[in-house]
Amino acid sequence: MYIPKPFKVVDAQITYAFIQSNPFATLTSTIENKIVATHLPIDCLQDGKYYGHFALSNPQVNMSPDEEICIIFSGPHAYISPNMYVSDFNVPTWNYSAVHCYGNCFKKLWFVMKVKQAGSFLMRKTIKICLSLFGFLNLKSKA
């Protein structure tokens, strides 16, 4: 990702906080020389590792642990009109915040209990974010 020097953030705590606030990510890899992307909630823990899961039918489940991946966390973004500047000559732009994380995908099979715990953790976190953004969560009960 191209980042002009004035906008580059190198503070790991700021990056960690950004990921915690924006856990719905895009994980990219290649399969047979074609770029593949999956949107999924991913959690970054203090140990520096990222946790998430794929459906077993997702082709990315079979990627090699040696293959480089990129996880993209996107945050707020907005159009900036030239009319918003004080000076006379300006061009329109799009301001955005994003974090790109590069590394390798380590696959680990978890016992069913661990999967349930991880899924429950991600679900609680996602619900908390929805509530903070929208003030409500529209869930149908299973009566």
Task: Please give a structural write-up.
With 143 residues, the protein is an alpha+beta fold. The protein has one domain (5-109): Electron Transport, Fmn-binding Protein, Chain A (Pnp Oxidase, Chain A), CATH 2.30.110. Helices cover 23% and strands 31% of the residues. It contains 2 helices and 6 strands, in the order αββββββα. The strands form 2 sheets. It has a 4-stranded antiparallel β-sheet with strand order 2-1-5-6, with helices on one face. A hairpin with a 2-residue loop joins β1 and β2. The longest helix is centred in the last third of the chain and has 23 residues, at 112-134. It starts with 11 loop residues before the first helix and ends in a 9-residue tail after the last helix.
User: What would you call the shape?
Assistant: globular
Q: Report strand %.
A: 25-35%
Which structural class best describes the helix and strand composition? alpha+beta
Would you identify the CATH architecture? Roll
* H and E string: HEEEEEEH
Rg calculated over all Cα atoms:
18 Å
> Helix amount, in percent?
10-25%
Unreliable spans are: 109-116, 137-143
Ends: how far apart? 48 Å
- CATH topology-level name: Pnp Oxidase, Chain A
- The CATH C-level name is Mainly Beta
Per DSSP E runs of 2 or more residues, the count of β-strands stands at 6
CATH superfamily placement: Electron Transport, Fmn-binding Protein, Chain A
